[in-house]
Amino acid sequence: MAPTIPIPTQGGMFHTFQGVTPRKASTDSQDSIKSSGSGTAKRITTPHACAECKRRKIRCDGQQPCGQCLSSRAPKRCFYDKHRQRVIPSRKTLEALSQSLEECRSILKRLFPTHEVQSLLPLSRQELLGLLDRPMIDTSVGGLPSPPLNTSPISDLDSPTILKTENLLEQMPSRDTEWDEERRGRDPIPAEADDINALSLSVDRQQSYLGASSIKAALMVMLKVQPGLRSSLAAPLNNVEMSNNYPVIRQKPTAPKDLQRIPWSWKGQTLIDAFFKRIHVFVPMLDEGSFRADYLEGQRMDAPWLALLNMVFAMGSIVAMKSDDYNHINYYNRAMEHLPMDALGSSHIETVQALALIGGYYLHYINRPNMANAVLGAAIRMASALGLHRESLAQGASGSDIAAAETRRRTWWSLFCLDTWATTTMGRPSFGRWGPAINIRPPEFGVAAGRDSSQHAGILPLIENIKFCKIATQIQDMLAISPLLRTEDRCGLDNQLVNWYTSLPWLLRTTDPCAEPLYMARCIMKWRYQNLRMLLHRPVLLSLASSGLNPHTQACDADLAAIETCRELAAQTIEDVAREWTRNQMSGWNAVWFLYQAAMVPLVSVFWQWGSPRVPEWLKQIEAVLDLLEVMEEWSLAARRSREVVWRMYEASRAIQAQQAAHRSQSPTMHMTGDGMLMSDAALHMSPIGLEPVEGLGMMGMLDQGGLWDLDGMYWGGQAADVAGAADFAACAGGPGSAGHDGMMHMDYGMMSQAHHQAAAVAMDGFPYVQ
């Protein structure tokens, strides 16, 4: 029989360790513990306290209602807040919240780029909307917000004078507007004349849209200040003899052009060398090494290559020859044979580059600015179709991939700069050539630097020009909305330009001798900088001049400072161009254009304030421009025409000076006008606009004597004006048979100025000019 194992009782020592949880004590034992501990105070803890106990910060027993609320002198409603369980967000939730916060900050930054969020918190909805209506100036050139819909500081005022001024500065075409830049083939118009730059001097013909930064705006202000100019400018053509040696630009090929190889030649090599020496430094979008290799092999015969090669020949011919050489027309015609309308749908970067040279340079050189604007716009659209405006993320590390990516960057930014340079003086908006969707990086300094002709500058001029053009695009868009900017906005934009120029690398600011490509790049860069600053402030001058207000009594200090800045920049441009231009067409072409722009400022000043003691200074600036334009005729196609336009304005201003001197010397009674000008009793009967006496003794009577002016040709015709009181300059206005250059006798400005100022000093003795 098996032995029996005794089972321990429940209270044995081994039973204590067999269970995890000890048994609960019996009710009797618990009661005994309570009774034994009743004599000592024990703190009552509850997981939650009622709301009243929380408020009073006292102990709560957790009952409903609790003892504290029952024993209160003023019983309160006892209730408990719902317990909120702490929620720990997941990582995904945190990332979503962070992304949403960044998006909100990004939107606020775009809406209010110059304001901190804390400063916006106390503003009402209407105040926030008011901030949105103000122009947003981005102090960094990296971003460019869209301009607001209202930029004029006085646009809220229903002032007829202001409305008329803005309408005058903005040339809005009517419904029956017709403009045709190819009418040179049908009408007797000089090849270098065009309406946008006022080289045709057509003041009444409806034209394409132009804004306040155009030459036409300055011309219209001069016409308003001196209405007599209109009859002179609008005189019909009279015995105009046109030269027939200018080649015809073919618009449509007679037959499809067969694709043929272009073999290497010394002439072609010379033109390519000229292109990479004087053009490539501004728009380095071509890979010089591969381009020269393809031409040397002479095996390529595809249409994009042939079009690009011929345009390189055309531009090389321009910068290598003088302005009387027209071989570039032949190369342009050949290039257009390989660029039919369906070429706009091709996906070749070489087609884009060829169109960039056509619209950015060539068509402006032959004075087809409207056509150039359309062609360059098409090139930008083609570039965006090729994705040149976006940085490629799938870029390889091989040398060919890096070179291809760099070519894409250079091509896009060259288009960007060309479009900015060409359209700034048209007064038209930029139409979004720069915005948030364009993330292509600027060209990288040092990539393929050894393959660029401009080895002393490399890609540096383009990199700095990109920064400049971003500021210029912002200015262009704001002036296209309203030419009259707020003072703080105008000063802010001007400060951006000044900061850009002062922060240029030393290589682009120094005047030390250097290679020709670098020298041209930094000179033209400075001229363009001065011109843009002048255009930024010039609307103030044009507005005050056209409104007939006295600048010394009816203009604020900020406007006077803007006018003075504009005049100083014009004078500085004339001085710098005279010292720095060189005898080649790339330098002469740009020099003539910036001189022509600068000359408008002293011309407007003379017509507006012809009684000012600064008139001799302004006339001296105009004379300097005339002398320079005469010297530059061999190196610019538009120099001769530009000189004729400035000459006519200068001659008219001299006529005013001589006439007023004669009137003052004959009339014993003199009066001071509101503009600080002296006029006799007879001259006080003026037309409502300008200073033209109704008796016909002013500009209308002086210049409407034999057709000195014409509408488009602006050539000499009829007899020289023989007007009393203007004998000191009438001999210089010879007819077709007079001696001198192209029917104009060379003027001795110093002798004329001395004789005129002596007469003026005698006439004005005792009549101080009101400052």
From TrEMBL:
Residues 1-42 are annotated as: Disordered. GO terms for cellular component: nucleus. Gene3D superfamilies: Zn(2)-C6 fungal-type DNA-binding domain. Pfam families: Fungal_trans (PF04082), Zn_clus (PF00172). Residues 49-80 form the Zn(2)-C6 fungal-type domain. GO terms for biological process: DNA-templated transcription; positive regulation of transcription from RNA polymerase II promoter by galactose. One of its GO terms (molecular function) is zinc ion binding. InterPro entries: Fungal_SecMet_Regulators, XnlR_reg_dom, Zn2-C6_fun-type_DNA-bd_sf, Zn2Cys6_DnaBD. PANTHER family: REGULATORY PROTEIN GAL4, ZN(II)2CYS6 TRANSCRIPTION FACTOR (EUROFUNG). This is Fungal-specific transcription factor domain-containing protein.
